[in-house]
Amino acid sequence: MSIIHVDHLCKDYEVHQKEPGLAGSLRSFVRRKYQIVPAVKDVSFDIAQGEIVGFLGPNGAGKTTTLKVLSGLLYPTSGKASVLGFTPHERKAEFLKSITMVMGQKQQLAWDMTPGDSFLVNQAIYDVSEADFRQRLGELTDMLELEPVLKKPVRKLSLGERMKCELAGALLHAPKILFLDEPTIGLDVNMQQAVRRFVADYNARTGAAVILTSHYMADVEALAERVLVIDGGQLVFDGNLSALVAERAPNKVLKLQLAHPVSPERLQVFAPVRMLEGLTAELLAPRGNVAEIAARILNDVPVADIAIEDMPIEEVLGRLFQRKPAAEAAK
Amino acid sequence: MKLRALGALLALNYGISLQYRAQSVLWMINGTVPLIMMLIWLQLAQGGSIGAYDSTTFAQYFLFMFLARQSTPTWVIYLMDRGVKNGELSPYLLQPVHPVWHYATEHWGELMCRMPIILPIVAIGLAIADAWSWPLLAHLPAFILGLALAWVINFTMHLTVGLIAFWSDNALGYDTVIYQLYIMLGGMVIPVELFPKAVQNALAWTPFPYVLDFPVRVMIGRISGIDVLTGFGIQLFWIAVLGFLFAWGWRRSLKRYSAAGA
């Protein structure tokens, strides 16, 4: 059953335009110029209870704007958004108690106080009973290993510690939907993994839906079964990751570990060479006859090991987003 | 807004103010204009009363004006300007309490931090100037009520002007304009009773005398009886007008919020 319904959603921003330099400043002082910039264009989708959905797209694609509309921070310019039956921008208390949003680049904990102080405020604001508060805080403290940091001022925490506290604070009221905007940005690899494990576990335990944007493909690969790809404000793909790769990457990658050095010309005969460094080579083989090409290589080339893999998702997306401006320029 | 949430926000903001005690003292120094004006007016009154004010009345007026000034400051335009420009309003908008309560409790937390320093200064000032008389104590409840309503007027006025942050790149300039009006027309430099009658009549149509001058005059006994009740009525009128304007403007302004910075 759908808990988020988005129907032909559009969001435009009015952006002040100014030429650089003193003359530009003076002109702007006398006469302001504004430009309407469409950030989200005619986007429609549905999300069901318990789903983890990754929003993918380049910077400025409209991912965060869509999340902000769904969480009630922004009014849509046109179209409709419905979350748990509520219209988000009306910001009814029951709606706000049912969702949470964690913004990797925006802190929500009181900077000068301890995380524990902010948690107490959240308990009161979200009207969480003492028993529920103790139980949930205990669980979150265990899962996120927060015990050592709960009594330190937020300003003294490392980025990773702070992000874990932000997550805990955002979940104390047991929301049904989590909007996570770049939750792992700036974190080291271990901390990224810890946050991913936590989100996956939280989703499994509570059945909460998770809508995630991230620049780290590993976040999306680890968590999201379904991805929504947004580019230039438009939804260009809605499906699972493997379908995205199959649809957008016609080639598979043949990874060769060579027994002896081989010239690129000799490999080029089988398929385009993507990389050749020492005894390691990668070829791009069309999906339809990758097995046949692999068999021919094994017969004709001294190969110690061979592997057939999908194109890395970053590369698929990189090519997808690179192609778009060129196609638009050609129009 | 439940009392429990209000209490928690107040406790948090009081805690934050306590972290910055030195800053509180610096801000208090910024509000010492009434004490300076008191010295000037006391000098002027050495030659005799000015209007209905003798040196004792001037001392009482400006010492309680100092207390009123320290009890009613607001920096909410700055908070709103920053909140809109940098997107710092977003975390507040995601919570099931109106952001105004965050702003209000930040002010109350700061007041709780200042009062233990302000009240002794006023008491010592009254003692040194030999301006205290026990009958004034009877005016204290009305003074406190008038001061509370004055705070609400000033805060709501600034909140309403702060909405400009949603429509313009910078709302801080308007803070300076209101501050000047608050100082000049509120009685902080010249007691409102000493303005020419025509100016007093004109000022009566603005909220400014009801933010500072009215509660102070209630305290020193320059307003009494039915005039006190009328004054409270006018304060409530301004709260209703400004509250309505803010609520009306807030709904429209939020449509322009761009939640920048994330």
The level of helicity of chain B is: 55-70%
- Measured between the Cα atoms of the first and last residue of chain A, the distance is 40 Å
- Count of beta strands of chain A: 13
Helical element count of chain A?
12
Question: Quaternary arrangement of the chains shown?
Answer: heterodimer
Given the C-alpha coordinates, what overall shape of chain A results?
globular
| Most extensive contact | A-B, 38 and 30 residues
Number of helical segments with 4 or more residues of chain B: 12
Report the portion of residues of chain A in β strands. Answer: 25-35%
Specify the biggest β-sheet of chain A: 6 strands, mixed
Give the low-pLDDT segments of chain B.
Answer: none
Estimated share of beta-strand residues of chain B? under 5%
**What is the total tally of β strands of chain B?**
0
Q: Which percent range fits the helix content of chain A?
A: 25-40%
The rounded Rg of chain B comes to: 19 Å
Polypeptide structure, described:
Chain A is α/β, with parallel strands linked by helices. Chain A has helices at 21-30, 63-70, 93-98, 115-125, 130-144, 159-171, 189-206, 217-223, 241-248, 264-268, 290-300, 313-330; strands at residues 2-17, 33-48, 52-56, 78-83, 99-103, 177-181, 209-213, 226-231, 234-240, 251-258, 273-277, 280-286, 303-309. In chain A, the strands form three sheets. In chain A, strands 5-6-7-3-8-9 form a six-stranded mixed β-sheet, sandwiched between helices. A four-stranded antiparallel β-sheet of chain A has the order 11-12-10-13. Chain A is globular and about 70 Å long. Mean pLDDT of chain A is 87; it is low at 325-331. Chain B is 69% helix and 0% strand. In chain B, helix 2 packs across helix 7, helix 4 (55-71) packs across helix 11 (213-219) and helix 8 (140-162) packs antiparallel against helix 11. The longest helix of chain B is centred in the middle third of the chain and has 30 residues, at 99-128. The mean pLDDT of chain B is 91. The chains are: A alpha/beta (331), B mainly alpha (262). Chain A binds chain B through residues 13-14, 16, 64, 68, 71-75, 89, 91, 93-94, 96-97, 99-101, 103-108, 110, 112-113, 117-118, 120-121, 123-127, 181, and chain B through 2, 4-5, 7-9, 11-12, 15-16, 19-20, 87-88, 90-91, 93-97, 169, 254-259, 261-262.
